[in-house]
Amino acid sequence: MNAFKSTTLAIQHLLAMYAGAILVPLIIGDALGFDSKQMTYLVAIDIMMCGIATLLQVYSGKFIGIGLPVVLGCTFTAVSPIIAIGTNPEQGITDIYGSIIASGLIVMVIAGFFGKLVKFFPPVVTGSVVSIIGISLLPVALNNMAGGQGAEDFASGSNVALAFITLVIILVVYRFTTGFVRAISILIGLVVGTVLGAFMGKVDFSPVSDAGVFHMVQPFYFGMPTFDATAILTMTLVGMVSLVESSGVYFALSDICNKKLDSKDLARGYRSEGLASVIGGIFNAFPYTTFSQNVGLTRMSGVKDRKVIYLTGAFLVLLGFLPKIAALTTIIPIPVLGAAMLAMFGMVITQGMGMLVPVMNESAENAMIAAIAVSLGVGVSVVPGIFDELPEKVSILTSNGIVCGSVTAIILNILFNMIGPKRKNDPMHGEI
């Protein structure tokens, strides 16, 4: 393959994942009240870490690297937990990065035998967790569509109109295009929505003019990490769910590339994700996981050469040193960002539902597991003080909706599906 074709394909992969990559730091930075300088750093370091995480995974070594053409980015599964930790009065931003580092180390330690632990994370558990995360994020999207919580023009006609015009653009592109253009429909919506926002006077270009042309990244930009048990448990559960999701991507790519995977290959892949999270925590970025949209692009193009993904990773690392490009993403009007969030978070919810529907049709027990886990997880997110009177050791499991829902799903799955004989009769489906 010549250099021009490799470069073109690498840029396609970068564009396919770019909207997902930048949305995560923009959402989290906005929720934590970052200023434009902090937001620019957060976006830049996240883009760079996407590249580093990708390079670690494409490489195939003795201890790390799945050796498949896979692109990594920050998992949306981590967004809600990170915001919850960062906005908790008893925790804070340094606890976010302490928990990311600690969970990454835990993932690296358990990578070798995660195949044995994966039985505790069947689709009824992972589907419940992903659904809880998606539902918990919806208020963030809707608040931003209205202009951002606390904004003087909150829910103004211009904000709501701009948000829905952006959403319509995303839907039209997604409906009437195919292939690569369809894959970047959200990115197109963000660009067109920002241009419209500029004509409406809702874009401030000062972050771009204030940003430098080049900067060096620095570890612990937001402070030295601190380690909170609840935060670590939360991010470890997020990490395990991400590993289960990544396993599906690994096997999908192995099928495309005609490469059979064994337990050692999977362990190297899991270890790479853990290492990427540790490095991400040190440089105040995020945990990283495989991006499924790039799998579709690989299948569509038919190009399986890892050199293309190496170039994609290198481009992402290079962009991380260019703050002006990162600053461009911070000028996106909040309503435009909210519209993109609604589409992305809605896809997270439907992804969870897609995992749950087949297993709920299998048995009434699975339907009950999902019902209780999702209800309790979302309920704790909506009414966070419900378990405040419980002992501190117990509150580690109940103070966060993601953890509460995850633990509930795991325990109920063990109770209904792993202990004792399975029920032969299922009155819900009329079996005899």
From TrEMBL:
Signal peptide: none annotated. Coiled coil: none annotated. InterPro entries: NCS2 (IPR006043), UacT-like (IPR017588), Xan_ur_permease (IPR006042). The chain crosses the membrane at residues 7-28, 40-59, 66-84, 96-114, 121-142, 154-173, 180-200, 220-244, 308-326, 332-357, 369-387, 399-419. Keywords: Cell membrane, Membrane, Transmembrane, Transmembrane helix, Transport. Its main location: membrane. Belongs to the nucleobase:cation symporter-2 (NCS2) (TC 2.A.40) family. This is Purine permease. It comes from Lysinibacillus mangiferihumi. The lineage of its organism: Bacteria, Bacillati, Bacillota, Bacilli, Bacillales.
